[in-house]
Specification:
The protein has 85 residues and is of the alpha+beta class. The protein is built from four helices and two strands. It has one domain (5-81). Strands 1-2 form a two-stranded antiparallel sheet.
Amino acid sequence: MDITNELIMEYLKIEGGVHAGFATPETLEGGLPSADLSYVMPSAKAAIVFALPLKLDAMDPDRRAMYEGELEPQELTEEDFTPKF
């Protein structure tokens, strides 16, 4: 079976992704050095980017402490889990 963009997007929806897309060297041009795909994989032609809802109380306590005061706990609604892609 060929892995297509549509198959990847469908998988991300099933796994709870709320936003997803594809980034290419061209779309990342002019960004931070950390956005350079060739730094990690010189032959990379694209990257899959996605967002998942973050549940703070499920986060490792040490990692959560790093964001103390920066992240506001919030109640997630059904709409937060509705894919926007």
